Amino acid sequence: MAFQDPSHSSVCGSLFGGPDLGPKFFCIAANNAATAGSSTGLGTASGSSGPAAQAGGPRHPAALGGGPGGGATAPQQHNKLASETPSPADMEPDRPIGYGAFGVVWSVTDPRDGKRVALKKMPNVFQNLVSCKRVFRELKMLCFFKHDNVLSALDILQPPQIDCFEEIYVITELMQSDLHKVIVSPQPLSTDHIKVFLYQILRGLKYLHSAGILHRDIKPGNLLVNSNCVLKICDFGLARVEELDESRHMTQEVVTQYYRAPEILTGSRHYSSAIDVWSVGCIFAELLGRRILFQAQSPIQQLDLITDLLGTPPLSAMLSACEGARAHILRGPHKPPSLSVLYMLSDGATHEAVHLLCRMLVFDPCKRISGRDALSHPYLDEGRLRYHTCMCRCCFTVASGRVYTRDFEPVASGRFDDQYEKTLTSVWQVKELIHRFITEHQQGKRVPLCINPQSAAFKTFIRSTAWHSSKVSKKEER
Ligand SMILES: [Zn+2]
């Protein structure tokens, strides 16, 4: 099935199309076009008051516990929104929810089951070989992940035949907010919240690192959260497999500056999963203090702020630094460490919290704690207990009590294999491989979904993605 036949789509306002989907929600209006928009909430292609009109600006997802009387409460049993199928009348229109570095995300209704899901358009996929490879890698990773604290692909939309194949759309679970929005909101953040968030970040990170994957852009905006405090790591646009050969150079154009590890700031040509742990340390401090820990204007100033806190590093911690960075540090005055200021972040900065924080914020990546070992720190015991008592999907409750899983922090079933990348040589070849990958991925699973290109929502979606793409490419030109 390629793009939907327009004759079927003129009455459908949802992004999704396709007579194959059956009449359940979508094309419900095929029998009664006049009432399609108003009665189903799916909107119409022609009405100016339909979802397209409402979808004019990005929605700011509800902050944690953002509902009436809400409040960032302790974790609840489960999220009703995610587990119940709404009636058509309850359905929200499709609309944009976020603009990441590598795509635009919309909140849409899956016409197969009525559930709200996130739809991400991966832009500029086939521009050049580098972008093709990056998208293919992200797509493969999203399909590889099987962990509750890592966002994964629920589905990929059916591609058209290869000559018309320009865009890739991925469906993931819809999350309500992200940690950046939570941190800057007036919502109170208790120590319990911080512990359960940090536990889940490290739990997801342990899984990623066990698969040999470096995320390379861990920041609050890439940590999605629900009102029940479940957290998932997302955006794998910069992720890659760990390079075990230390003589191979790795790009330094990674990690948002505030969360960038000192080894990247000092120009190390090779780095490890320790860079992600540094970012988590920065986020931990940000959760405690409700402000960015190292907020500098430039990479050099970023490094200066780090040495202000940690003190001048010993030469042994700068073996992989480039000459210029080492000279810059040694040229300046010798700085003593001032880690005691971490106690002033907030009342939650207890001895235990600061102890763990200081194990993550270590200048020398070889001496920095690993994600796996950080999980053994006593600070996280309560977070683990809370998560597995009422938030996780690996433990369950029976009449006699809670039955806990045998492995609280599971690792990946194997390493993510990126050997295929060595054989990729042309845009067309990768295009064919991606096309085949998506088609094979879908086989025999669910009714395939495709975009309804005639819908008003789709037109708005395309406008928003085009606007975003032009902004991104302008940025890249600089
Ligand atoms: Zn559990």
Automatic annotation (TrEMBL):
<dbReference type="InterPro" id="IPR011009">
    <property type="entry name" value="Kinase-like_dom_sf"/>
</dbReference>
<keyword id="KW-0723">Serine/threonine-protein kinase</keyword>
<feature type="compositionally biased region" description="Polar residues">
    <location>
        <begin position="76"/>
        <end position="86"/>
    </location>
</feature>
<keyword id="KW-0460">Magnesium</keyword>
<keyword id="KW-0808">Transferase</keyword>
<dbReference type="InterPro" id="IPR050117">
    <property type="entry name" value="MAPK"/>
</dbReference>
<dbReference type="InterPro" id="IPR008271">
    <property type="entry name" value="Ser/Thr_kinase_AS"/>
</dbReference>
<comment type="similarity">
    <text>Belongs to the protein kinase superfamily. Ser/Thr protein kinase family. MAP kinase subfamily.</text>
</comment>
<protein>
    <recommendedName>
        <fullName>Mitogen-activated protein kinase</fullName>
        <ecNumber>2.7.11.24</ecNumber>
    </recommendedName>
</protein>
<feature type="compositionally biased region" description="Low complexity">
    <location>
        <begin position="39"/>
        <end position="63"/>
    </location>
</feature>
<feature type="region of interest" description="Disordered">
    <location>
        <begin position="39"/>
        <end position="94"/>
    </location>
</feature>
<keyword id="KW-0547">Nucleotide-binding</keyword>
<feature type="binding site">
    <location>
        <position position="120"/>
    </location>
    <ligand>
        <name>ATP</name>
    </ligand>
</feature>
<dbReference type="InterPro" id="IPR000719">
    <property type="entry name" value="Prot_kinase_dom"/>
</dbReference>
<dbReference type="InterPro" id="IPR017441">
    <property type="entry name" value="Protein_kinase_ATP_BS"/>
</dbReference>
<keyword id="KW-0418">Kinase</keyword>
<dbReference type="Pfam" id="PF00069">
    <property type="entry name" value="Pkinase"/>
</dbReference>
<keyword id="KW-0067">ATP-binding</keyword>
<feature type="domain" description="Protein kinase">
    <location>
        <begin position="91"/>
        <end position="380"/>
    </location>
</feature>
<dbReference type="InterPro" id="IPR003527">
    <property type="entry name" value="MAP_kinase_CS"/>
</dbReference>
